[in-house]
Design a protein that fits this description.
Layout lengths: L6 H7 L15 H13 L4 H20 L26 H9 L4 H13 L3 H6 L5 E2 L4 E4 L2 E3 L3 E3 L8 E4 L2 H14 L16 H14 L7 H14 L4 H8 L4 H8 L7 H20 L3
Antiparallel strand pairs: 1-2, 2-5, 3-4
Helix pairs in contact: 5-7, 5-9, 10-11
């Protein structure tokens, strides 16, 4: 049996949606290669495709070592190469300009949530009114949206999380909430129909072109959020939780290059900390 890796979605990708008892021995290398090719055709980047297959590779390595299967179909797959190009990351000032250039209030709220809360596309599309709690200052991520299946569980157990609403985001969410009222439906959709990603992107790119701004994608907006949190000093564990990563290792692998690392930076951070500690120790009670 296929365990520990979203059986329902895996079966669907393999065109076995009607089966819930797919056995490890029934998955061939050809079938997995077709899966890889479909993911690539769907527009997923190379690193996402490799990360998608990583849990399945672990399952098969264990199954082979235990003698449960004779062959590992994940071995020898032709995978797209991961390029060295970094995804675009907007500066805080640029992020504010990108939002200000958008005319539609709902569009601004969607992009602001990606830029300042780091939600994934599927999480943005599945967000409901009750998930946005401005009184508590939290966004509760409870589900995601798949273009074939509709509402689904998040990518992993860590996908269900609470993300703090920073001040730069609060105004956009409040304006959108006031405009739409409490309907109990999708926060960024029409009732139970989520927003159209292509239309959202087309409107934004048109506005940014007219404003002379370099466009950004929703996934790059998520990276921008991570960079802002890192620059603000949010610790790695908290950042991993806010982004919904399955492990802190994923966060470090993807964003380690953004973290302070030079000798001068380290000295500056320690000196500042010790100075603040000394000031507190010398302050009168």
């Amino acid at each position: 049996m296929v365990h520990s890796w979203s059986e329902r979605r895996f079966d669907d990708r393999l065109n076995h949606a009607e089966r819930s008892d797919l056995k490890l021995s029934e998955v061939s290398r050809v079938t997995l290669q077709d899966l890889v090719d479909r993911l690539l055709a769907d527009g997923l980047d190379a690193s996402t495709i490799r990360n998608t297959l990583m849990p399945l590779r672990a399952i098969y390595r264990r199954a082979v070592s235990r003698g449960e299967v004779a062959l590992n179909p994940t071995a020898g797959l032709s995978l797209p190469a991961v390029r060295g190009r970094r995804d675009r990351i907007a500066s805080p000032a640029e992020a504010a300009k990108l939002l200000a250039a958008l005319e539609d209030e709902c569009d601004r709220a969607v992009w602001a949530t990606a830029l300042y809360a780091g939600l994934r596309l599927g999480e943005l599309r599945a967000l409901r009114d009750e998930d946005v709690d401005l009184h508590a200052g939290l966004i509760r991520v409870e589900r995601s949206w798949d273009k074939q299946e509709g509402v689904i569980e998040p990518k992993s157990r860590a996908g269900k999380r609470k993300v703090p609403v920073v001040a730069a985001l609060r105004a956009h969410l409040a304006a959108h909430t006031l405009r739409r009222g409490k309907s109990g439906g999708l926060f960024f959709g029409d009732g139970e129909q989520p927003f159209n990603r292509d239309h959202l992107a087309a409107r934004a790119h048109k506005a940014w072109k007219e404003a002379g701004l370099a466009p950004i994608g929703l996934h790059e907006a998520r990276h921008t959020c991570a960079s802002i949190f890192i620059a603000a000093g949010v610790n790695l564990k908290a950042l991993s939780t806010y982004l919904g990563h399955a492990s802190i290792t994923i966060t470090l692998d993807r964003y380690g290059h953004l973290m302070p690392g030079s000798q001068d930076e380290a000295v500056g951070l320690v000196d500042s900390y010790l100075e603040r500690a000394a000031e507190r120790a010398g302050a009168p009670n």
